[in-house]
Amino acid sequence: MASLVDRYLSHITTACTADRSGAVADYIPELAQVDPEGYGLSLCMHDGQIYSRGDSTVEFTIQSISKPLSYAMALNRLGYVRVDEKIGVEPSGEAFNEISVDDRMRPKNPMINAGAIQTVSLLLPPVRDVSAQTVGHVFDELVTFYSACAGRRLALDSAVYGSEASTGSRNRAIAYMLDSFGVMDTDPEAALDLYYRQCSLRVTTDDLAVIGATLANGGANPRTGRQVIAQEVAQRVLSVMTTCGMYDGAGDWVTSVGLPAKSGVGGGILATLPGQLGIGIYSPRLDRHGNSVRGIDTCRHLSTDLGLHMFNLNRESRVTIRSIYDIGAFEVGEEWSGRERGYLSTCRDQVKVYELQGDLTFSGAESALRRIEADMDDYVVAIVDLSRIDVIDPVARTMMLSVKHTLDERGQLAMVVDPDGVLRASVERHREDQVVPDLVAPETLRGFDPTLPHVHSSMADAVIDAEAFQLERRAG
């Protein structure tokens, strides 16, 4: 059975693939040959769970999405002081391939080509004659680092590498300009070769989503558990991605989408919501800024529909499930009747309680919903206890209420314990919300009244309701 998140991603895929505007990058001959209709979408949650749709296993070249990774590698190795001497962190407001430096003759930031070429130059020995063998050795180290971020071994696309190297006149001009300004300490040709190689590594949207989740987790890969990037470095990289990652479209991106992101002319976009998830998208038709048209549209949908804007004022909610237990383990209060106590002792293995905590947003609701659905064969009644929840945002509310429909279809029961009325408050605040299309029946929200059966103010009331349901179920 498809999960709520799977159904939503299917809806996104259908909506966004209808747009056929934009064009593939044609200034690199190999990129001009890709299928313009390709589209893949992946989400990687903070615990490593991946949701994928479309061409999520199709490999494409990483291109400029490599820039934040090499920047992280340089910061890991050399530290802030050394890297900041050579590369600024200010938005350029210019196209990605502009010949752009600041008043100190540094590239303005590491996300434009000048900054990226300077970044890889810092990974090479500070000598004027760097051998091909040395470049190959540093590239092997770079691939190892990128692969640790993605959670699998990445490989070079030799055809794209050759195509980029033979048509990179503008990048060659940028490298020699930096050399003439005295800010490049190594062989410009070696730096260019390493840059072309990094841009030609093959990835999938699953890879990008895992890389995004690694950054979101403070540098820890959620699939492997390895701390690949120092936490303070991950913070710096995300900051620069936020202000510079989408080139001269960065301002509009931050205000309307609000996710640290990096695009590539191969059609990929990597985005991340710090503390919660990573996103990978592939669609090779590009807009005038060099960003994927469908990728931009997909990110707007995700941010708006799922409340993923990083300045959403709800607190971070990764750890949503406080406790899970059979109802028989519940601590009985003095006010409980003999009937309630008897039900607890006889039906302990048929009713499971899920205590949630914190502010409930998409990421936390997804984690809780996935666990409740995974356990469905282990209970007849599920009680979701919201006693320790402060705020529920609209998409999380829709996701949690969808549990009722899922269990209804199986002849089971889902109930909510909501003593402080946070569910009621959420509905009242967002009474006019539109349900995210194709997720759940509209009646789930429109006209929903939290005072109806199965939404209770105490666990004792929920136990009585559970008993009544069990009796009716047996009689039926």
From TrEMBL:
InterPro entries xrefs: Beta-lactam/transpept-like, Glutaminase, STAS_dom, STAS_dom_sf
Binding sites annotated in the UniProt record for substrate: S64, N113, E164, N171, Y195, Y247, V265
GO molecular function annotation: glutaminase activity
TM region positions: none
Alphabetical list of SUPFAM superfamilies matching this protein: beta-lactamase/transpeptidase-like, SpoIIaa-like
E.C. number(s) listed in UniProt: 3.5.1.2
Signal peptide as annotated in the record: none
Listed Pfam families: Glutaminase (PF04960)
Catalytic activity entry: L-glutamine + H2O = L-glutamate + NH4(+)
UniProt KW keywords: Acetylation, Hydrolase
Domain of life: Bacteria
NCBIfam families in alphabetical order: Gln_ase
HAMAP family: Glutaminase
Subunit structure: Homotetramer.
Family: Belongs to the glutaminase family.
The protein's name in its UniProt record: Glutaminase
